[in-house]
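User: Structure please.
Assistant: Input sequence and predicted structure:
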Amino acid sequence: MYKYILRPILFLFDPEKVHYFIFGMVRFFENIGFSKLFRALYVIEDKKLERTLFGVNFKNPVGLAAGFDKNAKLYNELSDFGFGFIEIGTLTPKPQDGNSKKRLFRLKDDKAIINRMGFNNLGVLEAVQELKKEHRVIIGGNIGKNKATPNDKAELDYIICFDSLFDHVDYFVVNVSSPNTPGLRELQDKEPLTKLLNKLKVQNTKLAVNKNVKEKPILLKIAPDLTDDQLLDIITIVADTKIDGIIATNTTISREGLKSHQLLQEEKGGLSGAPLKDRSTEVIRFLSEKSNKAFPIIGVGGINSAEDALEKLDAGADLIQLWTGFVYEGPALVKKINKAILGRS
């Protein structure tokens, strides 16, 4: 129904407006008692789907990537579509509007999206208020820096977000790989990245001791545009800083092989969706093989089918995430992937 009735109608309108319309509709249907229906349609509960990574127990390995529920408004409701975990954010210390509109573009011929949202969010404290509700699903907290914060002060922004979210999320994701905040990707360089992650590890230990709880897992989200040498640096950084894993990958600045109109291709921002599939899988396989599977990997990028998801898992991903594929294929995709994984067990 989604692909052949709802999607053609929704795709007639501005994608950012549609995003907020969908949020409103999900909230409306949940409020009138459709939660059980959604769960009956989309949720598969089976012990064989469960995964335990970095001390966190996931009901299934299919998650919703950051950027969809930026402000932690609908994580419980979205879990009713079958997701095993929801990643909120990217969150910054202060609220920010992000880049000027229009900033979200569908490339329908490529099953892709270009976005230059720019970490638009209501600020980490607003998200904390939302996260005080009981969680029905594992929550990841994706954190970044405000646009106005210079890179030499960026560590403080990440620490503020980390401190604020510590009691409310199950794991953290350090986002230094979005192409839509000027200079952010410079933080992926070996020296500043090692320094940032070490600071977060120290803060993690400090908070855990003070609160008499376990430390929270810290993952790093990387760009697909890194060279092999840079990926080898990432492996070294993970070993040196002892963070808990990698999310591969964020959006790409590449426009190679696109079929959509040239004017769409020339829009600035990060490209996600089907054109990213192969490169994301290459990065996953490279990290897995070169590190000798030394750390968990969450694979994201271009998953539009159950086959795409299995390919990521075969390449070395332990969990996977959807975003653009969820937009193009609808919630049935989550169920199809989980069924395919079960079919292998």
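DSSP finds 13 helices and 13 strands in the chain.
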